[in-house]
Design a protein that fits this description.
Layout lengths: L1 E5 L5 H18 L6 E8 L5 H11 L5 E8 L15 E3 L4 H8 L3 H10 L4 E4 L1 H4 L4 E5 L2 E2 L2 E2 L13 E4 L7 E4 L1 H4 L2 H9 L6 E5 L3 E6 L2 E6 L2 E8 L2 E8 L8 E7 L1
Parallel strand pairs: 1-5, 2-3, 2-4, 4-5, 10-11
Antiparallel strand pairs: 1-12, 6-9, 7-8, 11-14, 12-13, 14-15, 15-16
């Protein structure tokens, strides 16, 4: 299994660092040839502008045979378009739209990634929906403001839906840039079956492999874990070794 979840961002050196293991895993699966990598994106009316940008970003890491897999807004992913993939990249955009578009194909995606071993990479929305229970947006918890309304993904109340189930932790993105750590804590409180959450900073990746996990990139991953009546907050950074977990603070629920 090989899963790369990126918190968004466009810093080229950091993104290359984050994506190198994904491209290497996909290339190995393709026996050294340029791997076939479908790029799944929801067309929100901007055309291919953003999908092309992600394809160019991954191609900066190494040669790939990128395949454009567009899903119209309000539509559903046709999983047959992923046939023959050596790796799978899910782009970013409006997270609720991605969750809805990928939901009908969730079982197929889990099989491809978790059973068949197809490497998965997702950035921003593509990272958030990888969770078993996905926080898809919102900036309010009742009347309490959690983050800026611009980070709400067109939703007011913090919202949690079924995700792809590739990782057990809940995932929020753009954490430091958008101030979404309080939203992640509120979302975890709404999903008591989930034990931990990951707040991914931009230009930073959480990489899950059969031999363990690590953080790559220029910023940090904020891990919240349940601890009695509070969440234990660990700040994890790229140390090019086993993931380091340092308790730096406690956040109440």
């Amino acid at each position: 299994m090989h899963i790369t979840l990126i918190g968004g961002g466009w810093d080229l050196p950091a993104q290359i660092t984050c994506l190198q293991p994904f491209v290497a895993a996909a290339t190995a699966r393709a026996a050294g040839r340029p791997p076939r990598v479908p790029f799944v994106w929801v067309d929100e009316g901007d055309g291919r502008r953003w999908s092309d940008r992600w394809m160019e970003l991954v191609a900066a890491v190494g040669p790939v045979d990128g395949v454009d897999v567009d899903v119209p807004l309000g539509g559903a992913l046709d999983a047959e378009r992923l046939d023959g993939a050596h790796g799978l990249f899910v782009c970013g955009g409006l997270t609720p739209a991605y969750a809805a578009a990928l939901a009908p194909a969730a079982a197929t995606l889990r099989r491809l990634v978790c059973k068949d071993g197809v490497p998965y990479a997702g950035s921003s929305a593509g990272a958030a929906v990888a969770a078993r229970r996905a926080v898809v947006g919102g900036y309010l918890d009742g009347e309490r403001v959690l983050c800026a309304d611009e980070a709400g993904e067109d939703l007011e109340q913090v919202s949690v839906v079924d995700g792809l189930g590739l990782v057990e932790e809940m995932v929020d993105v753009h954490t430091s840039a958008w101030g979404t750590l309080p939203r992640l804590a509120a979302a975890l409180s709404k999903a008591p079956e989930v034990e931990a959450g990951l707040g991914l900073d931009e230009d930073t990746a959480w990489v899950v492999r059969d031999d363990g996990v690590c953080v790559l990139g220029r910023n940090a991953v904020h891990r919240l874990e349940r601890d009695a009546h509070a969440f234990r907050w660990s700040l994890l950074v790229d140390d090019r070794g086993p993931t380091r977990r340092e308790d730096t603070s406690h956040e109440p629920r």
